Amino acid sequence: AQSVTQPDIHITVSEGASLELRCNYSYGATPYLFWYVQSPGQGLQLLLKYFSGDTLVQGIKGFEAEFKRSQSSFNLRKPSVHWSDAAEYFCAVGARNTDKLIFGTGTRLQVFP
Amino acid sequence: GAGVSQSPSNKVTEKGKDVELRCDPISGHTALYWYRQSLGQGLEFLIYFQGNSAPDKSGLPSDRFSAERTGGSVSTLTIQRTQQEDSAVYLCASSGVVSGPGELFFGSGTQLSVL
Question: Which of A48, A29, A26 is nearest to A37 (CA)?
């Protein structure tokens, strides 16, 4: 069965610092992988996705993520965090024969000025 | 419509009552999903509709939960005999062929509080 683990419940960084949010997945084949963001009072929005090919994918708002098959990971990164990046971030995994997504428990990002 | 619309935005009910939550997906989207978001639990998959296929109900937590999708568009999630543990935000999402696999468009959710 598919599953997603986000080991960090809450992360705090200073504005301008770099960021890495961890995501590990469990799936029997090569999955589809996603990162979504939920800003305060707003719905979830897709940041980026990995289907195949280049293992480093670029997303919106300056985010990127790297798929590492050997580590079953899909960590999200940003070189310099902005105060507006404060939000909850969800990693998700999907199977290749369905649009159903399984989400992790989320990581809440707090940004200090 | 322009986005996924959910109603009501907030619902307060008494334990034991039935509730209905409505979702109006983006026009033309063939797939519709219901998720439940509880504190510390992330997004819990409930049910998934794709076109005219039988829905994937594997995430429904009990037989008190049911959902239907009429005419391939609007969906209603029904919770019978609500319990306090049903309190959560219920999120609906839709997706279509153009948006690509896994690109779900979410509504703002219904905050359900069971007293």
Answer: A48
Contacts of B113 (CB under 8 A, 6+ apart): B10, B11, B12, B13, B87
- Close Cβ partners of A18 (under 8 Å, ≥ 6 residues apart): A77, A78, A79, A80, A81
Query: Residue A100 above 60 pLDDT?
Result: yes
* Among the listed residues A81, A89, A80, A77, the one whose alpha carbon sits nearest the alpha carbon of residue A35: A89
Distance CA B47, CA A77 (A): 31
Q: Is the pLDDT of residue A43 over 90?
A: no
Residue A53 CB neighbours (<10 A): 8
Q: Which residue has the tokens 């090569």?
A: A30
Would you call A99 and B35 a contact, using CB atoms and an 8 Å cutoff?
no
Residues of chain B whose C-beta is under 8 A from some C-beta in A? 3-4, 31, 33, 35, 40-45, 48, 50, 56, 91, 93, 95, 100-104, 106-109
List the end-to-end C-alpha distance of chain A, in Å, as a whole number: 41
Residue A100 phi, psi dihedral angles, 5° rounding: -70, 130
Local confidence band at A79 (pLDDT 50, 70, 90 cut-offs): very high
Closest CA to A56 of A69, A65, A68, A44: A65
Residues 6 or more apart whose Cβ sits within 8 Å of residue A53:
none
Residue A3 near residue A102 (C-beta atoms within 8 A): yes
Tell whether the model's pLDDT for residue B72 goes beyond 90.
Answer: no
Helix (H) or strand (E) holding B90: strand B88-95
